[in-house]
Amino acid sequence: MTMRVLTVLIFLLVGSSPLLANDKLYPSGSESTSDTLTIYSSLDISAAEPLIMDFQRTNADVSIHYYEMQTIEIYERVLRETEDDVSTADLIISSAMDLQMKLANDGYAQALSLPGAPDWPNWASWRDTAFALTYEPSVFVYHKPSFEGRKVPKTRAALQALLNEPSDPFYGRVATYDIERAGVGFLFLARDAEHARDIWSLVKAMGAAGVKLYSSSSAILERVSDGRFAIGYNILGSYAKSWVRNHPDLGIILPSDFTVVMSRIALVPEAAARPRLGVRFLEYLMSEAGQRILATKSGIPALHPNVTGENTASALRLESGAQLRPISVSPGLLVYLDQVKRARFVQKWNKALREK
């Protein structure tokens, strides 16, 4: 696929031009010497800040310029700056697993020797260039009062049976991602289709139940938490969990047939201005200390196998075991950027939604 075709495809998938970055500078604590680490990331600044502050406690000589960006903007900016022979960010972190994998596969990421790499699961890194940092399940969310006296579905088959009830108890009150506009929605459903051949029967049932489609997690979570919707399908669990703290009527289910798990991927670009600083911060993010801050202060499930307690991969495995299906950091992710295959998948989705 040519770069021009890929660029057009990605803009179509996002549905709009990339937004300008929301950036913030965190000055160093040193009056004598200071280096500036530049990070492009899709992680909200509010979630990244606890990690930055903790890192600077023991790295007082480092200022950090943090750019919060859309995933497509990160990808496009790294390509543009590299091809223009301009230094780019020292570290990039993105939830777009497919785009990060493409950068690594196409030679835009440095191969690194990291002390924490041997502790990482085999599926969570690729050729010492791309590293998963988080462990974020796809979940069902539901409005608890709407299910009083009724069993909450814990599998896709149970959800389909509920939506197929003749009385249509939740008609117009079901929501999920619009896979044509939400990259994570496409990724989750594509993985569902790999694990469940009958997933299209569920999509058909959602369509018949008047499913509402959204491009963001927050739009769905807001409407489920206040009762406008009864249930949301394939919602990013890390966002759902943050909503539960302030919305007691919102419930979360990790589907017991299988639960897809995505990760945010980090890499140090080949054209980084200060790659040693990018490596230093990545080492921190993969350390037990950094992963604990990720879980406790940033609210994102940590991946490190030795980090235990709430909001960690270890806790999720104890709770759900073999039902968890993490998405591997591998070139297999590139299939989701194939224009023809993606178009066929979306066509199948739209057809299933319209079937009666």
Primary descriptors:
18% strand; globular; 356 residues; alpha/beta; seven-stranded mixed beta sheet; 40% helix
Can you describe this structure?
It is a single chain. With about 350 residues, the chain is of the alpha/beta class. The chain is about 40% helix and about 20% strand. It is built from 13 helices and 14 strands. The strands form two sheets. The protein has a seven-stranded mixed beta sheet, with helices on both faces. The radius of gyration is 21 Å and the shape is globular. The two termini are about 35 Å apart. The relative contact order is 0.18. Residues about 1-20 have low confidence and may be disordered.
A few lines on this structure:
The protein is built from 13 helices and 14 strands. By secondary structure, it is of the alpha/beta class.
Shape: globular
Low-confidence stretches are 1-20
Q: How far apart, in Å, are the first and last alpha carbons?
A: 37 Å
Summed up, the helix count is 13
Radius of gyration: 21 Å
